[in-house]
Amino acid sequence: MPVIQRKWWICGLLLLATMINYMDRQTMANTASRITTEFSLSQAQYGHLETGFGIAFAVGSLLFGFAAEKMSVRWLYPLILLGWSLAAVASAWTGTFGQLLVCRIVFGMFEAGHWPCAMKVTFATLDTKDRTMGNSLVQSGASIASIITPQLLKLMLTNDVASWRGAFQIVGFAGMAWIVVWFVIIRKTDLHSTRPATGEGPGLDLLPILRSGRFWAIAMLIVGAQTCWHLFRVWLPKFLQEGRGYGEDEVRNLTSLYYISSDVGCILAGVFSLWLVRRFQQTTHMAKRRVYQVCTLLTCCAAFIPWLGRGAPLVIVILLVGMGALGLFPCYYSFVQDLSDHHVGRLTGLMSMWVWAVTSPMHSAFGALIDRTHSFDMGMACAGLAPLLGVASLALLWKEEPVTA
Questions:
Q1: Closest to 275 (Cα-Cα) out of 267, 341, 26
Q2: 155-167, pLDDT tens digit by residue?
Q3: CA 301, CA 355: separation in Å to the nearest integer?
Q4: CB-count exposure of residue 147 (10 Å: 0-12, 13-18, 19+)
Q5: What separation in angstroms does the CA of 352 have from each of 40, 68, 87, 163?
Q6: Full-model pTM
Q7: CATH fold of 3-186+207-397, please?
């Protein structure tokens, strides 16, 4: 298989890992009303499940981000998939809120390892000019899973409130199957540049990077992007069903449409970045900044949500937000890869730890706000405006373009 084709096959395998990762999250989001009913949870308690997942994700990001620099990714990656697959299967057998919370914590811990490993693989296999496109493909797995999962749930769920449990078993078995495919496809030579660096030299010191304006520009950028993406991911089905009165099947169809739009936005982000570089000879850095700005304009459409009831205008706004929200992430991953050739795994892990620690408590606060005001509207609108933080941080803190090969 020619090298120019093989690298995209590897990106496709990473896309599948992202799909399995997000099948769990979407199963949770799309069965949230059933779970809250079965376990008699308040909105704030449901928010605690997401907060527990997020805090564990933060810890796992740091742990696996550093592990990805010390261990062979060829072995670490499948171990991570095995961990979250077992947690998914265990979720199907929970009998109390506490047991489900433990499963979500374990799940979050292992799911966090996906991103440092995936970024190490794309860094090893793709040239600088191809990484935004490659990261778009990897990230688009989130949308594909989010499109498919609601439709699968329509076929699986019955009038029995507890019928959500089987979906978690499917997620677990899918992860185990991926491990087999990984070892069939990936050769040792594919990931030679993901091995730990053994020598000393320029660029190996992490501390100056952490002190730099670029690092903190990206740190602020991902807070904005993550706030928008994950608040919509977690709360959109509940907003549609409980906030706007859509039925379960209508919610699943609208959720699938939202993620179709987000997948289109994610792929277009990569295509648009390549087009700006090749057609207008823009630097890769400036191309990514332009893409991020356009995606932010789309997410800001959420500001109209408080004034929109059921109907086409609301759906159009939600689709525009989805298109922009996922398009932010390929840019973010490429910005991180620009920071250092030697610390891709560590930096990805540190960024993930930072952003999940900051944003995860928002779910408990969001749930408490809904319990108090009986409205989702203001929170959804603010989530759409959050990526403006990234635009401002890039303008203020990232003064020079990186030197790329």
A1: 267
A2: 888 888 788 888 8
A3: 23
A4: buried
A5: 32, 14, 20, 33
A6: 0.71
A7: Growth Hormone; Chain: A; (1.20.1250)
